[in-house]
Design goal:
By secondary structure, the chain is of the alpha/beta class. It has four helices and four strands; from the N terminus they run E-H-E-H-E-H-E-H. The protein has helices at residues 9-18, 30-46, 56-59, 85-96; strands at residues 2-7, 22-25, 49-55, 71-75. It has a four-stranded parallel sheet, sandwiched between helices. It is globular.
């Protein structure tokens, strides 16, 4: 199964350097947001993607689909998390069944 990343140019570059299978970069404009929606739909339908990581700011600009597979996780971008640590731990716990502790 592949890991796909949808993010701003800086976040996308970081994940690409880290070895993520599929990395897509998006800006803030209306056409870019439409591209994001389309790519997210394609990745969900692909069947070979197990995890989709999307940056929090981009996820807030679209309606997130309610699917069980692939797992879609919102991750912070370079400016940090908008959710806070407690909510991120809950998202990870629900997604992979493991509770993260410091």
């Amino acid at each position: 199964m592949k890991v796909a990343v949808l993010g701003d140019p800086d976040t996308a570059l970081g994940f690409k350097l880290a070895g993520a299978h599929e990395v897509y970069s998006f800006g803030d404009g209306p056409l870019e947001i439409e591209r994001l929606r389309n790519k997210l739909g394609e990745l969900i339908e692909a069947g070979d993607v197990g995890i989709i990581l999307i940056t929090e700011p981009l996820a807030q600009k679209i309606e997130m689909p309610d699917v069980k597979f692939p797992i879609i996780l919102q991750v912070p971008d370079k400016s940090g998390s908008r959710f806070g640590e407690a909510q991120l731990r809950e998202i990870v716990r629900r997604a992979i069944g493991v509770e993260l502790k410091r």
